[in-house]
Amino acid sequence: MLLKADLHIHTVLSPCGDLDMSPVRIVEEAEKKGLDIIGITDHNTTRHCRLISELANDKGIFVMQGAEVTTKEEVHFLAFFENNDTLNKFQEFLDENLPEIMNDPSKFGYQVEVDRDEMIIYEEKKLLLNAIKKSISELEIFVHSLKGLFIPAHIDRKKNSIYSQLGFIPSDFNADALEISRANSPEVFKSLHPEVKGFSVVRNSDAHRLEDIGAASTMLQVEKPSFSEVFMAIKGLKGRKLITE
Q1: In 3D, which of 34, 89, 79 has the Cα closest to residue 177?
Q2: CA-CA 20 to 30 A from 102: which of 5, 9, 16, 201?
Q3: Cα separation of 28 and 77, whole Å?
Q4: How far is CA 205 from CA 52, 54, 224, in A?
Q5: How far is residue 125's CA from residue 193's CA, in Å, rounded to a whole number?
C-alpha cells in the first residue's frame, strides 16, 4: 500500500509550537489533510508522543514517536523509536543531557503538556531549545543502540542544519535518511548535491502551526503502517521504498 507521511510535526510542548498544536487538534488536522502516518518531533522531548499515538490510532493514523534533538554542534536531528520502552530510555537520555537552563516563556514561548481535554498537566521548566551535551556521533550511536531511526533535519536550511554547521556531510555519516524542507524537492536537491547519492531523502512540513501540517509529505510504499515498515521503506529493504525519490 501507498501511504502519505509527514514525519516532522511539533506540538504545544515545543516553545516555538503554536498554542493550537494540542494532541487532539493535531490528529484532527492530520485526518483532514489525508495523512496516514505522522511523526511527533518536539524539541528535545518525547512527552506528547504517547497521547497523540492513542488519539491517532482511533482515527486510523499511525504515529512515529520521537523528537527533534539539537546536538552540541547546534545541528537538528529527528530520532524515532519503535516502542514505549525505547522511547522512555531516550527521554531519560534527553533529561540527563539537556542543560539546567530554565525557559522564559515571555521570550521563548510556553512548554506545556496537555491531556485529551486540552488541560495543562505538565510544564517543562528547562529550555527545550538548548543543545544537549552530546555530539552528533554520540547521539547517532545512542539512537542506533536503541534500534531507532536517525535523520538529520532540514539539511537544506541555513540554520541548525548539518550543512550550515559543518559545511559538509562526513564521509562516514551513519544517517538512515536525510530530511529536506518543504522549499525543496528530493530530485532538485540531489541534482545540486551529488554527495548525497546513496542516502534516502524525506521531505516533511516541520509544522509549528495547524495549517502547516501536511504542507510537505513523503509517500511510502509499505505493507502496513508500522515503525518497522517505515524503517524498511526509508532503508529500501524488502521491496519497501520511498516514492518521492
Answers
A1: 79
A2: 9
A3: 26
A4: 18, 22, 22
A5: 40
Q: Tell me the per-residue pLDDT of 184-230, one tens digit each, with 9 for 90 and over.
A: 988 899 999 999 988 999 999 999 999 999 999 999 999 999 999 99
Q: Which amino acid is at 5?
A: A
* The pLDDT of residue 165 is above 50: yes
75 vs 59: CA distance, rounded Å: 34
122: pLDDT strictly greater than 60: yes
Measured in residues, the chain has a length of: 245
Give the separation between CA 2 and CA 36, rounded to whole angstroms: 9
Q: What is the pLDDT of residues 42-60, one digit of tens each?
A: 999 999 999 999 999 999 9
188: which residues sit within 8 A by CB, 6+ positions away? Answer: none
Asked if 67 contacts 46 with a C-beta cutoff of 8 angstroms, the reply is yes
Grid cell locating 110? 510556553
